Amino acid sequence: MAVPVPGALSSRIELSAEAYRGNVAAFRAVVGATRRVGAVLKGNAYGHGFSELLPLAHGSADVLYVVTPAEGLAVRAWEAAHGAPRREVLVIGALSSDEVVALAEAQVDVVVADRSIEGAVAALRARGLVARCHVHLDTGLGREGFTERQLDAGEADVLARARDVLQVAGVLSHFANTEDVTEQSYAATQLSAFERSAARLGERVPLPESVSRHFAASAAALVLPESRYDVVRVGIGLYGLWPSTETRLSARVVLGAVPTLSPVLSWRCPSQVVKWLPAGSYVGYGCTWRCGADTRVAVLPVGYWDGYPRIASGKAHVLVNGKRCAVLGRVMMNHLIVDVTHAVSSEAPLSATLLGRDGDEVLSVETLAGWAQTIHYEVLTRLGAHVPRVVVER
Q1: Which domains does the chain have, with CATH numbers?
Q2: Which position among 186, 275, 285, 315 bears the catalytic label?
């Protein structure tokens, strides 16, 4: 008796290498040859899979941005294992003193956003280590970073006092409201605050001429040329998705044409069973849907445990043989039941596309996010880390 292959009926996520490289090239064309393009890999690479996306990002981008120290060290481990050249890596999340030391040993850059870095200074001196750091300036997001008032009060002066162990390599900030609008008046106030704060910082902390300034994420890189500075930190855009409809509209005005961004991720699932249900049959928990006629259904072994949003019940569709097929009843923990009456002519096993293209039809993550009453960022980053991911060329 044949032993079943583990996970043979699980859904899987496909990642297009061609699309990712094309998206990096699109941003390079927009920002120009004098600026570097950085790839943001936070949130499990926006749900795409950190380990699966790392080789693509490493081979295409100039700088890698991660949130956790474990991710920064994972990049160095991957480089060592594959004989790859070292990329500049910056951990943009919060760090303990021990983590700063570990990252300095691995020559991974860290962000200094408040006075907590003082705790790492003695440890760095004791180990004879120098940490390359980027100073975060809060220009109006109200999150990490030194405000202008804090700079004036000397809260960043630790950088001057610890020049022997803290080497300032960059200055950064983050926009609060570039994606949700088509006019950028608030972004303009942040850019002004950045210039003022960077000047204040330079008065109190000696900055090298080579210091790298970075501010723009995906939206600003596309629609705010003045924000591009030395390097752009691109997240959602490198995965082939627009930050928002407003960003796409603004890009047409600012750039004169809309750059081509191709979604990297597709999500597919084989059927567990395909069968007929007689008219009058109820489908799923709560008996929320009833067959008005004899209905051929496919049971798909995927559900909200895997990241398919339960709130999309009663609204969602999947693609089978290039046709939209309604999700019947409630999305379950491990199952979807879909109406395939018009899509197939037998009860043979089939494959459904939950996200991506099938023939001439496309189900975008923005569409699924609309059914789920959320944003595409959330849908992607909630895709289960346990779902197999595989890189395909096209």
Answers
A1: 16-255 (3.20.20.10), 265-392 (2.40.37.10)
A2: 285
